[in-house]
Amino acid sequence: MTIANGGDLLAATLADAGVDVAFGLHGGHLDSFLVGCESHGIKLIDTRHEAVAVNAADGYSRVAGRLGVAFATASSGFSNALAGLAHAYADRSPVLLITTSPPLRDAESNVMQSFLDESALARPMSKWTHKVTVAEEIPHLVSYAIRVATSGAPGPVVLDIPIDVLFRPVAPDYINYGGGTRRPAPPAPAPAALSEAIDALRRAERPAIIAGAGVSRSTETSELLTRFADLTGIPVFSQRGQTGVLPHDHPLNGYYASSLASLRQYGTPAPDVVLMLGARFGMMLGGRGGGVVPLDATIIQVDTDGSEIGHVRPFDIGITADCGETLRAFLDSGADVPWPDRSEWAALATTPGRAEPGFADEPDSVNGRMHPYHALRELARSLPADTTIVIDGGEAGSWMAAALPQARSRRAVYGTGYLGFLGVGPGLAIGAAVAEPGRQVVLVVGDGAHGFHLQEFDTMARHELPILTVVVNNAVWGMSIHGQDLVYGKEGRLISELRDTNYEQAAIGLGANGVRARTLDEIAPAVAALTADGGPGCLNLSVSGEVVHPVTPMMVGDTSAQDQIVIPYYDNLPK
Questions:
Q1: What gap in Å lies between CA 120 and CA 118, rounded to an integer?
Q2: How far apart are CA 207 and CA 368, in angstroms?
Q3: Domain shared by 335 and 383, yes or no
Q4: How many CA atoms are closer than 13 Å to the CA of 324, on its beta-carbon side?
Q5: The pLDDT value given to residue 333
Q6: CB 522 within 8 A of CB 560
């Protein structure tokens, strides 16, 4: 193979590693790499903002179960990309961000797109970052970066390749391939820990499985979990943001793990043994309290990162291993001996997650606008089967999460994540659509979050992506304004109101189709029309901003305590 220059060598190395798509924006620094991608069969998906490009690589990774690759030009483009990098870091997404910088000889000379130490800026929000100074070292450093991104606790990595390194001709005899692009086998569970875990699950009266990203980001691992659930009869719950670990209609699918906190309302005791498969304690599982996972439950924690085991809560059995390898070992070790009958417990445990929430009985409309739950439940019931649903936003996301059991979706990607990032949805949806060509993707986003990257309708239209964006339009920042009401009263409503914007018209202007729905009976026909041609569309749902989702007062906390200082979203402080 003839290699022209550093950019061509970079593209060839990525292609050899199995990369077939990269997301980003053009910059002159990148031209030799972009030409190399064209030569080596890597498809380029150009977005309208660098943060969206990294979000798209993130979404691609979540759905395809592979490395996502993004690129951003020097300084300004890199700075825009940092928001996407931070989101990928917090949510453990294996993403390779390629950026550039001015020529090495121009250091400290105030040339264009200089001033920033990009590696230093990226280091706190990446697993590894490095400036490449020799073109012949590109294969070695790229393959190492990929192994870092995908091994252990996955996460983003950053390679800064200066423009002169990318454009410089390569001396073939001096190319360093390092360890090559092959990946090592994932870690398997220790036999003693495996045996102890199986014994604990067999003895349990009320076992439960909580699956996180370690399961949801691999179709093969999800299938192994389905087989293990079928074998054992143990109900399965998803860490919020990680749905799709079991088929939507599987009888052992309890949906969100947060529903375990509702068992007491049904007179059902809590789980006594919980198997954590790639799931992390913390915000997504009720913080440090025992509302979701009882404090007295036996905890079996499986994670590729041994330091995460016991990081937030004590554990009883820790297994540092890949979730897929662990499930495969569970199946091999537990198939010969019949498992206890868990059917009664499973039926009780999955009831809260499948039941309609209390607000399902509230009126369909409030002061002439649709109740947000009823609107999203109607949306869920109207969606095509096996849709991928991407959820973005605060209260809007919570309303959609409540309606999710009504859908026949393939999976749901809850985008807001550990950083509470809004506006990540368009990128995640673009990546999801590219990862599975032809599958319908539905992005559900609040009108506040939608404003960050509305221009990405242009990206969806240019690349003919089947993404239906559903804007939950209540003309306010829902969680913000309702939180202000709880803490300060109505007079505390500051910078939390929006216009009732015709987002569907904006979508039409950017090349998509658009419809506004003001009543429930308009939703299903609109969904059918907007998904008929396989292109992008926008459904603008007029919903009430007066309805408060129960998650908001839960997150704000106790505002009635007289001896405490209210700290919204965290534990109150004593006065």
A1: 5
A2: 46
A3: no
A4: 13
A5: 86
A6: no
511-520: average pLDDT: 98
The per-residue DSSP string of 187-227 comes to PPPPHHHHHHHHHHHHH-SSEEEEE-HHHHT-HHHHHHHHH
Does residue 115 contact residue 102 with C-beta atoms inside 8 Å?
no
Return the active site residues: 29, 50, 113, 420
pLDDT band at 420 (very low <50, low <70, confident <90, very high): confident
How far apart (Å, rounded) are the C-alpha atoms in residues 238 and 197?
Answer: 20
What span, in angstroms and rounded, lies between the C-alpha atoms of 84 and 77? Answer: 12
pLDDT digits (tens, 9 = 90+) for 167-213: 999 999 999 999 888 889 999 999 999 999 999 999 999 999 999 99
Largest CA distance in the chain: 74
Q: Which region holds residue 387: left if phi is over 0, alpha if psi is between -120 and 50, else beta?
A: beta
Length of the chain: 575
Q: Which of 72, 69, 5, 2 is nearest to 32 (CA)?
A: 5
How many Å separate Cα 498 from the centre of its chain? 26
**E strand segments, 21-117:** 21-24, 43-46, 68-72, 95-99
Q: Could you tell me the pLDDT band of residue 17, with boundaries at 50, 70 and 90?
A: very high
What residues make up the domain containing 297?
191-354
CB-based contact 100:89 (threshold 8 Å): no
Across 9-168, where does the E strand assignment appear? Answer: 21-24, 43-46, 68-72, 95-99, 128-131, 157-160
Q: Which residues have a Cβ under 8 Å from the Cβ of 521 and sit 6 or more positions away?
A: none
| Contact between residue 394 and residue 370 where contact means Cβ atoms under 8 Å apart | no
Domain end point (choices 292, 324, 354): 354
Give the other-Cβ count within 10 Å of 124's Cβ. 10
Give yes or no for a contact between 517 and 526, defined as CB atoms under 8 angstroms apart: yes
Segment 86-123, tens digit of pLDDT: 999 999 999 999 999 988 887 776 676 677 889 999 99
Q: Do the Cβ atoms of 466 and 438 come closer than 8 Å?
A: yes
Structure tokens at 365: 């409309």
Residues 200 and 255 in one domain: yes
User: Distance (Å, rounded) from C-alpha 492 to C-alpha 293?
Assistant: 35
| Angstrom distances, CA of residue 459 to CA of 87, 149, 351, 434, 501 | 21, 27, 41, 12, 21
- Please tell me whether residues 82 and 204 are part of one structural domain: no
- 181 occurs within a structural domain: no
pTM score of the predicted model: 0.95
Q: Among the three residues 354, 376, 403, which one is the final residue of a domain in this structure?
A: 354
